[in-house]
Amino acid sequence: MNTHAQLATYNFAYLDEQTKRMIRRAILKAIAIPGYQVPFASREMPMPYGWGTGGVQVTASVLGPDDTLKVIDQGADDTTNAVSIRAFFQKVANVAVTTSTAEATIIQTRHRIPEETLKEGQILVYQVPIPEPLRFLEPRETETRKMHALEEYGLMHVKLYEDIAKNGHIATTYAYPVKVEGRYVMDPSPTPKFDNPKMHRSEALQLFGAGREKRIYAVPPYTDVVSLDFEDHPFEIQKFDEPCALCGARNVYLDEVILNDKGGRMFVCSDTDHCEKRRAEGHVGHLAGEAPETAQ
Amino acid sequence: MATPLVVSEVAKSFTMHLRDGIRLPVVENVSFSVAAGECAVLGGPSGIGKSSILKMLYGNYSVDTGQVLITHNDVTVDIASADPRSVLTIRRDVVGYVSQFLRTVPRVAAVDVVAEPLLAKGVAHEEARDCAGDLLARLNLPERLWSLPPATFSGGEQQRVNIARGFITDHPLLLLDEPTASLDAANRAVVVDLIRAKKEAGTALLGIFHDQDVREAVADRIIDVSLFSAPKEAA
Amino acid sequence: MSDHPLLRVNAVTKFYGARVGCRDVSFELWPGEVLAVVGESGSGKTTLLNAISTRLLPTSGTVEYRMRDGQFRDLYRMGEAERRFLMRTDWGFVHQNPADGLRMTVSAGANVGERLMAIGDRHYGNIRDTASQWLGRVEIDTDRIDDQPRDFSGGMRQRLQIARNLVTGPRLVFMDEPTGGLDVSVQARLLDLVRGLVNDLGLAAIVVTHDLAVARLLSHRMMVMKDGNVIEHGLTDRVLDDPREPYTQLLVSSILQV
């Protein structure tokens, strides 16, 4: 009851109940219309825009006392944004937190989808900076809404066309547009396109919150999520030449880590939980054991 | 066979709104007809309204009163009251017109200017250009000019392009407004031959020829336009 | 020529408050026919164009279009989705300012290809080939296919806008002062190009212009507008060579002779 005393000035999970109900209604609508951007009355949060205010509001609205929360930023549990949001919910909701993907019931993320396949019952909450995939081609909100309503998505392919014309291939590597359940084109937020296939028919519920833009959208479990492409330039995910330097994992998304100022570098799992779990299971990468010393 | 052209009680005047609305009568009670295979010539002094009559028959000038009946394939159309679309169809299929001056279109080659009426009737491009070339050759237009736009041609050269364009089709009625005005004797003779060939093919021709030799060579009949002169009003 | 008009405009009227935009305009347009609407600035010709092309809701009157299935449909009783689909497949709209009709920050190829992608073309190579052919048709070097229109001259932009509109094989094209703002030599080239395309493709077009030379060169038929009313309407060469109305005579007599 000690913690309860600390919480006296806050409602559970910071937001008042009316606000949570308002956001839940928006979430329900978003689930009912997969990929459609539902406007909601985004609140001021005790953190700046760009720090995940949309994701935090969504998490606050779906979070219950029995949930176990995991927060990642760039796949890592220990980066500033992840640490501060995790601490925020520990303080205002007193929920259990974890870094383990499998143990979490709610995962708030900024850039990545965990490597470990999500299961039924889990909720993945994305922090979204710019929800409108058509924005950079059509600046008028009135027009983009109309285009969504009338399913006029030729413009999305114009963007991909430009990519191929300039680079010889589709060079968009993140925020790669997808079509949800054959209807709405959706921006998966700044996740790398490497993660796009994980959204397709995922068992977990995926919720997207954009605080500054005041939009919520969702991909319910088992929903088709198809990345846009051309017949002669099909969608492809990034491929990495070498495995994770620490755990030896292949077919995972890797981050480049600079080791020293002499050009030394290594590629390691962006998903820190996944990497640690593999190392605990005895998997060893070619730099495992050396890296910490060199880094120091 | 129906008479291709019947003009009945046609009157025409111009109202000059910019000059206090004065009305300039041109012709009235114009009545004549032209039969197939005949070349009728409009006669009379300059300014009497000969060109105006041709322009009315072509739908280029409006008609105040009266009828201009053009019959083709047993269908008779009154040009004086026809809608623009019918007039365009008549021009495409029935009435050809050689004006005094060629209205040039920028960047279009002489041979294509000539071929255009055939293309409009659906003749294939190559065939139309071949026909155009034959006619231009017959009118002694140097071949090096064929691929150039006629805007920079001399008056005589332009006139020959104009004649070729008018004669290229098998329109059953042909209107000729001084087609030989700026031609030399040799080319005038070619035009006379072309007109005779049209007559033999059963074309009805109506023309204005100031050149007496040409007129005598082709005319079956002179229609005296001064008989249609409208009484001048006091201005 | 077809036995049915493509477009039936019936008593279209547009008021801006108490002010008349255009009043009681009726006409029919047939396939392959080019109609010029001429008049001075403020005469209502652009209002009329917008009211016919579903860009501006008329105060009263109907506009019916013969769809590809042969049925006439009232444009203002159609759903918006269908209307917009019609506009980007069966219609074209060429703006006076090419920047209004182009995406200035995407390449020429994508500008031409956009309509193809909008109707579901998903083969990059084919889209690019078609775009390239169309650039050729409007006399733009095909090696400019990846350049953005903001690097193009005014005449090139206007030609690009035309290619972008024609790529889906529309049956009806609206043009609002297509040669306005271009140098005279550039105008002549554009006019000749448009004239050729209209003939080759059998397009019907409504061209709004204040330039009687443009009307003479492009159109079969002409409407003269003044103060929102159509004051004279007829075959283009008839209206220009034998103008009946005082205002038309004034317009025709105001042309500079070269």
From TrEMBL, chain A:
Enzyme class at the top of the EC tree: lyase
Keywords, ordered alphabetically: 4Fe-4S, Iron, Iron-sulfur, Lyase, Metal-binding, S-adenosyl-L-methionine
Highest taxon listed in the record's lineage: Bacteria
Keyword 4Fe-4S assigned: yes
InterPro entries: PhnJ
Reactions that this protein is recorded to catalyse: alpha-D-ribose 1-methylphosphonate 5-phosphate + AH2 + S-adenosyl-L-methionine = alpha-D-ribose 1,2-cyclic phosphate 5-phosphate + methane + 5'-deoxyadenosine + L-methionine + A + H(+)
EC number: 4.7.1.1
Main function: Catalyzes the breakage of the C-P bond in alpha-D-ribose 1-methylphosphonate 5-phosphate (PRPn) forming alpha-D-ribose.
Family the entry assigns: Belongs to the PhnJ family.
Descriptive protein name: Alpha-D-ribose 1-methylphosphonate 5-phosphate C-P lyase
Organism: Hoeflea poritis
Automatic annotation (TrEMBL), chain B:
Keyword Ribonucleoprotein: no
Coiled coil: none
TM regions (residue ranges): none
One Pfam family named in its UniProt record: ABC_tran
Keywords, ordered alphabetically: ATP-binding, Lyase, Nucleotide-binding
InterPro entries: AAA+_ATPase, ABC_transporter-like_ATP-bd, ABC_transporter-like_CS, CP_lyase_PhnL, P-loop_NTPase
Annotated ranges, domain ABC transporter: 5-235
Superkingdom of this protein's organism: Bacteria
GO MF: lyase activity
NCBIfam families per the UniProt record, alphabetical: CP_lyasePhnL
Family: Belongs to the ABC transporter superfamily.
Stated name of the protein: Phosphonate C-P lyase system protein PhnL
Gene: phnL
Automatic annotation (TrEMBL), chain C:
Pfam family, one: ABC_tran
Domain of life: Bacteria
Keywords of this entry: ATP-binding, Lyase, Nucleotide-binding
GO MF, any single term: lyase activity
Start and end residues of each ABC transporter domain: 7-252
InterPro entries for this protein: AAA+_ATPase, ABC_transporter-like_ATP-bd, ABC_transporter-like_CS, P-loop_NTPase, PhnK
The family this protein is said to belong to: Belongs to the ABC transporter superfamily.
UniProt protein name: Phosphonate C-P lyase system protein PhnK
The species this protein was found in: Hoeflea poritis
Species classification: Bacteria, Pseudomonadati, Pseudomonadota, Alphaproteobacteria, Hyphomicrobiales
